[in-house]
């Protein structure tokens, strides 16, 4: 099946594409939604936006067409089950996939990295149903500790670009999944922190994976910090980055 890969820059969307290809599907292009107005991130219930600056290299890294559009809608319909709602952020995804299908009408499936959020999965399924596409959520309900180790073992090279939970702070920004794995497991045992970040505890940016033809190198970034109810929040603003050949 020909598939469009929804990419956020994070580990889940990349690993889901890997799973799709392992099952014989063909990723023919990529689709990404990013904040409007030059914001670093948006308060979205659907989309990861931290690190979006680097997603512009994904098309070149995977040697695939990359379709991008701004997130202009808001999370207006917050019911678990979604129905078409004007100016909702979900409609940005619908419109982006309409553009993708115009260029690639033979696409039949959508790769999405949903793991635990029924809210997100329902919305992807709603958009797919309206467009006659099949949602491919290969990570859905997989046990998270095993999934994290599987990602690391299978070659997902990702760094933390946002932290927003007790036990993680700005010193962990830029750390790899390998470097923070044991800490995540300890925080899970002590506080119930989601090992894969499904509660928004952290977000990642993938620098390399087996699907990449070239890897991404971050040359320069800054760390932005703030205080929220959950504790200190810090995120990485990617400023300079480039592609280089894989050794």
UniProtKB/TrEMBL annotation:
Parts of the chain that traverse the membrane: none
Catalytic activity: diphthine-[translation elongation factor 2] + NH4(+) + ATP = diphthamide-[translation elongation factor 2] + AMP + diphosphate + H(+)
All residue ranges annotated as the Diphthamide synthase domain in the record: 1-222
Pfam families, sorted: Diphthami_syn_2 (PF01902)
One biological process term in Gene Ontology: protein histidyl modification to diphthamide
InterPro entries registered for this protein in UniProt: Diphthami_syn_dom (IPR002761), DPH6/MJ0570 (IPR030662), Rossmann-like_a/b/a_fold (IPR014729)
EC number(s) from the headed UniProt entry: 6.3.1.14
Keyword field: ATP-binding, Ligase, Nucleotide-binding
CDD domains linked to this entry: AANH_PF0828-like
Pathway: Protein modification; peptidyl-diphthamide biosynthesis
GO molecular function: ATP binding; diphthine-ammonia ligase activity
Top-level enzyme category: ligase
Family to which this protein belongs: Belongs to the Diphthine--ammonia ligase family.
Function (record text): Amidase that catalyzes the last step of diphthamide biosynthesis using ammonium and ATP.
UniProt-recorded name of the protein: Diphthine--ammonia ligase
Species of the source: Enterobius vermicularis
């Amino acid at each position: 099946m020909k598939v469009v890969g929804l990419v956020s820059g994070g580990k889940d969307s990349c690993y889901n594409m890997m799973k799709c290809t392992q099952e014989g599907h063909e990723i023919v292009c990529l689709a990404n939604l990013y904040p409007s107005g030059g914001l670093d991130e948006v308060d979205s219930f659907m989309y990861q936006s931290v690190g979006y600056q680097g997603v512009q290299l994904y098309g070149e890294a995977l040697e695939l067409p990359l379709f991008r559009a701004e997130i202009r809608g808001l999370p207006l319909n917050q019911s678990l089950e979604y129905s078409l709602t004007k100016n909702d952020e979900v409609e940005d995804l619908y419109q982006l996939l309409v553009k993708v299908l115009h260029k690639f009408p033979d696409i039949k499936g959508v790769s999405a990295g949903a793991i635990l959020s029924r809210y997100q999965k329902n919305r992807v399924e709603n958009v797919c149903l309206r467009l006659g596409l099949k949602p491919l959520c290969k990570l859905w309900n997989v046990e998270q500790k095993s999934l994290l180790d599987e990602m690391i073992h299978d070659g997902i090279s990702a760094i933390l670009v946002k932290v927003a939970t007790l036990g993680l702070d700005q010193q962990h920004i830029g750390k790899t999944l390998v470097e923070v794995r044991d800490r995540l497991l300890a925080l899970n045992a002590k506080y119930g922190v989601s090992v894969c970040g499904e509660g928004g505890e952290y977000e990642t940016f993938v620098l390399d994976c087996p699907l990449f033809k070239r890897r991404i190198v971050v040359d320069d970034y800054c760390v932005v910090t703030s205080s929220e109810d959950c504790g200190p929040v810090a995120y990485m603003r990617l400023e300079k980055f480039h592609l280089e050949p894989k050794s």
